[in-house]
Design a protein that fits this description.
Rossmann fold; three-stranded mixed beta sheet; five-stranded parallel beta sheet; 372 residues
């Protein structure tokens, strides 16, 4: 009887040891790009890290989004860049997002390694800038916890070079996947308990992330990005076309953004970026009856940007409902301006002419032949 107990225990111990060894040896891809990881950043460049969702994950990740599965960046992906990709091209000498690396592990592997006292690294594995921890599908629960816990893993990376991060910035842009799905409820009852719960949870998790960052990097600036107006998204422009639901939605959106704004106000070295106001200034909104009356934005002689959906550069939003090329260029411009204003950083503003010079050759590229 005793022997029958010992054998399974030995087997379990062997399995556990093998699993631990597997987790310890699980390649995160960084070994293949060690030189890139160790490359020096441009002299004086300000480290810039990102926590967020698909709105901040770079588009050109062939590992996770090969053509057969549909490409982030749409059908004109060769000319469509996400805002961090624009930032790297227009201000790569002043803002350092880290090297472009294929780094990370599956979320369950990263979490299991952490349970064993090892580094989780970044999850999921992706091609992206070293300091970009945003991942598609992320919600507020992924800021601090779960398989894709972003803030603790970013801080672990920052801890490897704390002197650099004394002048660094972390952008936190998340919450859309938590709140925008409640559009109908927001239009009916802006004070619904479900909405208050989401607001409290997201503000709390974002606040915890700010506290964690500042616990070991008190001089690092943190920019909290509010939510834009989801009712104006092209997928929702046929909804809320009457005054009362539109007013209710505005109350609900303002309540969420007020909570994030308060987190920024309550923490040192932390500022708020008003995405809702930026969006309104750019495109306008609906009229008092709820009917869309959006503005067309001229961007040089070759591009008229409209608040429509499609993969060509004249559309603000791609067919997959992510930001298009011009939107991302203007967003990068606005973030640089806000970081300079809020934190007094020595950043060169991105001028309108510079945006147009960046966009023009991309707009002029000929369309690819079908099937290419």
């Amino acid at each position: 009887m005793r022997r029958g107990v010992v054998i399974p225990l030995v087997a379990l111990a062997a399995i556990a040891a093998a699993a631990a060894l597997t987790l310890a040896l699980w390649n995160d891809g960084m070994g293949d790009v060690a030189a890139a990881h160790q490359a020096e950043s441009p002299p004086g460049a300000i480290p810039l890290a990102v926590l967020g969702d698909s709105n901040s994950q770079s588009y050109h990740d062939d590992q996770w989004f090969p053509p057969a599965n549909g490409e982030r960046g749409g059908t004109l992906r060769d000319r469509t860049f996400q805002w961090t990709e624009v930032m790297a091209r227009l201000r790569g000498q002043e803002l350092d997002l880290g090297s472009w690396v294929h780094w990370g592990r599956p979320g369950v592997v990263a979490r299991a390694r952490e349970w064993l006292g090892m580094s989780g690294g970044r999850a999921p594995q992706k091609w992206d800038y070293l300091y970009n921890f945003a991942n598609s599908g992320a919600s507020c629960k992924n800021i601090m916890g779960g398989r894709f816990r972003q803030a603790p893993r970013l801080v672990a990376l920052m801890d490897q070079d704390p002197a650099r991060w004394q002048r660094g910035v972390v952008v936190i842009a998340i919450g859309d996947n938590d709140y925008s799905g409640f559009l109908d409820l927001q239009a009916r009852d802006p004070n619904a308990p479900e909405l208050r719960q989401v607001i409290g949870y997201c503000a709390g998790e974002i606040g915890r992330a700010v506290t964690l960052i500042h616990a070991s990097h008190p001089s690092t600036r943190v920019l909290l990005v509010g939510l834009g107006n989801a009712a104006d998204d092209p997928t929702n422009q046929d909804k809320l076309q009457s005054p009362e639901p539109l007013r209710n939605y505005r109350i609900a959106l303002d309540a969420y953004n007020a909570a994030i704004r308060k987190v920024a106000a309550d923490n040192p070295q932390t500022a708020y970026f008003d995405a809702d106001r930026w969006q309104f200034d750019l495109f306008g909104t609906r009229n008092a009856e709820g009917k869309p009356v959006y503005k067309t934005v001229p961007l040089g002689p070759n591009l008229q940007l409209t608040y429509t959906m499609g993969d060509t550069p004249n559309n603000a939003v791609l067919a997959d409902d992510h930001s298009g090329l011009a939107w991302n260029a203007l967003w990068a411009q606005a973030l640089v301006a806000r970081m300079k204003e809020a934190f007094g950083l020595p950043l060169t503003p991105i001028s309108d002419d510079e945006v147009i010079r960046f966009l023009d050759p991309l707009v002029a590229l000929p369309a690819k032949p079908p099937g290419s």
